[in-house]
Amino acid sequence: MSEEVLITARDLRKTYDAGRVRVLDGVSLEVRGGEMVALWGASGSGKSTLLHLLGGLDVPDGGEITVCGLDPRREAHRLTLRRHHVGFVFQLHNLIPDLTVAENLRVPALARGAPAAATRTRIGELAEAVGIAHRLNHRIQDISGGERQRTAICRALMNSPQLLLADEPTGSLDEETGDTVFSLLRHLVQTRGIAVVLATHERRFAEQCDRVLRVRSGRIESGRPAVGSG
Ligand SMILES: Nc1ncnc2c1ncn2[C@@H]1O[C@H](COP(=O)(O)OP(=O)(O)OP(=O)(O)O)[C@@H](O)[C@H]1O
Ligand SMILES: [Mg+2]
Description:
By secondary structure, the chain is α/β, with parallel strands linked by helices.
């Protein structure tokens, strides 16, 4: 495979609560453009923690990490990473409840300084692709959980990231809508060569990824897309 390496992590360590909660204990991985990689592991195993480190939302206690050529341990790099290179779908969405769907989608484009007309077009395309175009002018607090999740996915894709980190992006979607969203991500990986790393508890999605990284006991084990229990 000749696609460029987007993530390199070596011996990542992360603890919480002044070292009392040891979550990641020597995680190493490499992810290239054009790959769709599943993080698979029991609740509390550290999937969200790892995604936060990769997306520059939190910093490791130790280890080496390079994401899209930047060092997420450095504050200035974290900012550039989040604004220009990485889209992040949060497990709890983190949308702004008082704003409409369209206003939430405009936030990352404003942060990047994108032209208004292009932003409007992009919002329309993404909303159409995940089936929320009819909800663009509704406030987040008034829409369903699945519609919020799809809004969060669109927000993460607004700036056309090289790397999408998605924390259970289909967790509150019915089977059909989940399949639509997964197919959209698959399509982006295949046609744009972006990389997607997603935490999931859903076996059918993990099995459709190119690789499954199993998070267990603070480490990851790489595997084929055949997933065992928990
Ligand atoms: N800020 C924090 N302070 C203390 N402990 C934390 C903090 N964040 C996470 N943890 C703990 O770290 C462990 C890993 O959490 P994490 O959210 O990464 O797990 P996860 O694999 O994403 O779980 P789930 O599948 O339930 O989302 C858990 O035991 C969690 O309680
Ligand atoms: Mg989690």
